[in-house]
Amino acid sequence: MSPLEAARLYGTVAARTGAAASGTTDAAPAFAEVLRQELEGAAAALRHGEAVARAGLLGRASVQEVVEAVTAAELALERVTAVRDRVVAAYQEILRMPI
Length: 99
What we know:
single chain, elongated
């Protein structure tokens, strides 16, 4: 996840939390909704990358199109993996807390 995306997600969660604390509601989506959208986007990028790679093997897509689609899919996979790693690390931190 890039620093800009992390900041955007943090800002969304902070705005939502601040609105809940002050009793006001705003149009900011919940963190779960943002996460769902990111995962759906990553899955779509992976499917698109696979489709363009197949088209490239059949001669229906240029090398540049294949490289762009595969790179976008790779970045999406890295982003999802980074989020997963952060969630696991946060869960482990919670488990280490004394009760």
